[in-house]
Design goal:
Elements lengths: L16 H8 L15 E5 L4 H12 L3 E6 L6 H7 L4 E3 L12 E4 L8 H8 L4 E3 H10 L3 E6 L4 H14 L5 E8 L4 E4 L5 E5 L4 E3 L2 E4 L8 E4 L13 H14 L5 E5 L3 H6 L6 E5 L7 E9 L2 E8 L2 E8 L4 H16 L4 H9 L9 E6 L2 E6 L4 H14 L5 E5 L15 H4 L5 E4 L16 H10 L3 E4 L3 H11 L5 E5 L7 H12 L1
Parallel strand pairs: 1-2, 1-4, 2-3, 4-5, 6-9, 6-12, 7-9, 12-13, 13-14, 19-23, 20-21, 20-23, 21-22
Antiparallel strand pairs: 7-8, 10-11, 15-16, 16-17, 18-19
Helix pairs in contact: 2-5, 6-9, 6-10, 9-10, 14-15
Length: 503
Amino acid sequence: MKPQRADGVSHHLCFEPTLQKRVATWYTLTSVANISVPKQIHMIAICGVGMTALAGLLKKSGHHVFGTDAHVYPPMSVLLDAAAIPYKVGYDPNHIDSKTDLVIIGNAVSKDNPEVSSTLERKLPYLSMSSALETFFLKEKTPVVVVGTHGKTTTTALLSWVLSSAGLDPGMMVGGWAKNFDANFRLGGGSYFVVEGDEYDTAYFDKEAKFLHYRPQHAILTSIEFDHADIYPDLASVKKAFRKFVRLIPPTGFLLAASGNSSILEVIQDAACKIESYGMDEKADWRAESVQVKGPAIHYDVVYRGEQVTSIESPLLGMHNLKNTLAVIALAHHIGVSWENIGKGVRTFQGVKRRQEVIGNVRDILIIDDFGHHPTAIFETLSALRLRYPSRKIWVVFEPRSATSRRNVFQKEFVPSFFPADGVILADVFAGEKIAPEVRLDPKKIVADLTAMGKTAYFIPDVDQIVRALSEKLIPGDLVCIMSSGGFAEIHQKLMLCLQEKA
């Protein structure tokens, strides 16, 4: 018997026939009919960022949602609690209720997971997170998908807020905690649904990129660089995934593509839709001119093909954020949002947790949390902080934790990424024993290279040692940016407590 889609219907029209065939055969489950009828849904690995957002959407839609995960931790546990979604820690077949109508399997688990095995044995209908989002929420909407190696989360949250503040009531799923919505999802009653499109693979049974499920009508492509070294062998394979995504946008669609990126130029060659570019170079369709930083905001004129169309005040500092905001402005204008409403939405955007987020101020020492883990993101974030806090000494503490940063693919590139900081501390590679020595990042070498260039840099493997060392070096007026894609053993709280005790 051929595998079939969960919703029993053909996939969104794809403009490459062979790709359409592949998409249609990704599913390995029986059909899930009448999705508007409340269902009992079990979610395996519910604490993933996307899974948590999907759980909230399903609960808001009237479905009965329950989840499990190996570890349940903030901020996702906080979001689940706020949505009154029950969950249990640990995987056990007995967790799957006998009345379960559908199982949603996160990409963090494999086929030998006890609950996955039970799902297969019991022949329960199952979906990946991405195909569930498509099935339940995107088919009747106009999806606007934000993709790219960097900037997806902030851009998705900002676009959602601009559309929401303009009264368009969009749906939203974003890979972070959007402060304006105090959540990472929004059900919305309008025609648009804004999605952060991740290029990571979908599930153990679907190794294609998540964003290929999202039926893009309009899209923003922020950047293409090598990342996710655990699933992509090289940049060419990353570009291949993005090329498939671009081909999904129909001729009636619209693509905003960042200028000045050779990989993007290569990927968009076969697009069937209208394309416009954005960036700071003269060839970009959408550009920013007369850029000025005034206190906590950046001001600039938006120029479209040589003509000034509006002026913007934005709380998002840094060149990367300026470009992200340009993309949002251009797409919002394309779908009919007024310049007045665009300006208001940008001006009142509160940001995303863990993106240059000030989480404490002890003795006039600022503690900032950031998700940065790729050399480009680290450099752009530190540069933005330098712009925002020109008089403060900037310390950065970095934990190599993501699948790519734990490997030595960016061994050399990490060195200049820390240049905007005054002092650098590198922790040891997270779970380094799980990475073969010959491909493991060497943080000691990064520190040695920085020191040889005259930078103040230290390798301190243990969190408690980092806290003790930093607390001795920090003085009022300093800033500490802590960068990790995970919890980093609660280093933020430990550092603030230590500084308070020294007060």
